Amino acid sequence: SSDLGFHGIDEETDQSIRGFLRHEGLLAEGAPCIPFITDMTGAGEFGTEYLVVTKRMLVVLVPEDSSFRVVHAVPLSDLTELQIENRVGGGLMWASINDHKRLLLYYSNAVVKKLAALTKEVSDYLRKRKDDGEAELNLAPLEELEEQACPKCGRPLTETSRVCPYCTKRGAILLRLLKFARPFWPQLMTM
Q1: Closest by Cα among 141, 79, 80 to 114
Q2: I need a surface site. Which of 21, 66, 111, 112 has the fewest CB within 10 A?
Q3: For 179, left (φ over 0), alpha (ψ -120 to 50), or beta?
Q4: How far apart are CA 48 and CA 41, in angstroms?
Q5: What residue ranges of the chain have pLDDT lower than 70?
Q6: Cα 85 to Cα 38: distance, rounded to the nearest angstrom
Q7: How far is CA 52 from the centre of its chain?
Q8: Nearest to 52 by CA among 92, 98, 23, 9
Q9: Handedness of CA 136, 94, 80, 17 (dihedral sign)
């Protein structure tokens, strides 16, 4: 769909996620939530998962048939730490739940900026909660994150790229390179 909304998620998917969370009792009617699309599965392979942030919890969903399946539902009241671990080409998001570390999701470098912003906001919330005893997660900075998404498939693009690696026709790229190399073909043939 070329009509992509917040964080590369089309309006229909956004509403489906919200409806699913309400049906499962994980989101009150009218309560704010911010769904993030991630680009790797729990198996560490490229695919789609959703990380949904509400004022009360973090939820990881996977698309399943015409609905979703909850992989993790972490109440913020049980969360003691949220961290991202960047690695080559991507990373991991960890949650410490009642001081037990649990892997929430894998991600590629294409989504690191939004996950870093989310981690910062949640960490600020956890620090305030620890210091003051009471705090509320501020979702406003997360709503303001600007993200570029592929107009064809909706997957997030890196900050420096306007081309989706999933939708790129690799054969066309090779032909284009060969056209550029045409003046040098005689030299290439003698190598």
Answers
A1: 141
A2: 66
A3: alpha
A4: 6
A5: 1-8, 140-149, 154, 156-160
A6: 15
A7: 9
A8: 9
A9: positive
